[in-house]
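Weekly puzzle thread! Below is a chain. First person to post its structure in token form gets bragging rights.
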Amino acid sequence: MSKSFYYPNKDKIQEAWSKDDSMANCCSKRTNFSKEEDDLIIRFHALLGDRWSLIAERLPEHSGIEVKNYWDSHLKLKLTKMGIDPMNYRIHEYVHKKNLDFIASRNKKLFNGEISDAESSA
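Winning reply:
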């Protein structure tokens, strides 16, 4: 008993590939996000988690894929650099300790009169 295989014709294959290319091209456009949109994405991510389509519903100019890609490429890194864990929004202990040490040393210098008026106002 022999099995016959169905081979779609060349036109159907090209049509399928062209649809995939058009889908990739529609999402490859780089859109700019404003600072307000950054804040909204961060707040909604803290509230909703990785539910990108729900977050994108509140940003009418952006799709869920755009929001997810922007989160992965920009906002997650931004929070990490600020010392905030992007998954649970807690401050990393070492960053918190470093900031406390800096503030304590600055206050010590301030009370000892080691900081000039120009530095203290800045």
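Puzzle host: Confirmed. Bonus trivia for everyone else. The domain at 31-91 is CATH 1.10.10.60 (Arc Repressor Mutant, subunit A).
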